[in-house]
Structure formats: C-alpha cells, structure tokens
Amino acid sequence: MGVGTVTYRYPTGAVAPTNQVMLAHDEMSADLVFAAADGDATTITHAMNLNPSDGSVGQPEVSIIATAAGTALTLPVVAFLNKDAITIVKSIIAANTGVTWRVTIKRPHSMGR
Description:
Layout: E1 5-10, H1 19-22, E2 27-34, E3 42-45, E4 61-69, E5 76-82, E6 85-90, E7 99-106
Antiparallel strand pairs: 1-2, 2-7, 3-6, 4-7, 5-6
C-alpha cells in the first residue's frame, strides 16, 4: 500500500503552511490524491496550533469534497493527529477506487474573508 499525495493549495502553495503563516489565516486547503492501491494514513498539516489536540471540542472543522473519483465509491476516514495536523485514510483499497479530495480545514467560529 502507498500513501496519498498532498498538494497544498491555500494559503502557501506547494508546501505545508507554518504556524507563523496560519496566524494570518482562518482556513487552509489541500488536494489529496489516492491511487486505487493507496490507502495508508496520509497526513495533512494545517499548523493552526489548536487545543485540545484530539479534536474533542469539534475543531478544526474539516470539509472533504471529491473532485475526481473512480467507479467504485470510497470514503475518507479522518483522525485528529495532533494540534497541527489531521490524518486521512481511504476506506477501500481496490480496483477503481482512485480518488482526489479537496480538503478544507477551518478554525472553529471563523468569520471568513
């Protein structure tokens, strides 16, 4: 099995945002691509320094939208890794389960800009 490929989109582009960068932003987004044989845990760094680190108070808010998918449906399984990152695993590893997800991570109660 392989891990998915993360491409950071906002706010920093090709690399994961730093804590310093995220002080000025209330959300970040990344594309996560899994091939059909991929399914291992893939980490997305949001660098928001949120506590508690287990997500037990509903933060950060995670939104996942499929932007491309194979013919067999697979779903994301999300876990809070620590105060700066989440882990996503593809639920099914089989033929035709390749998928691209747009992942948006927000601070709770963000006004948005």
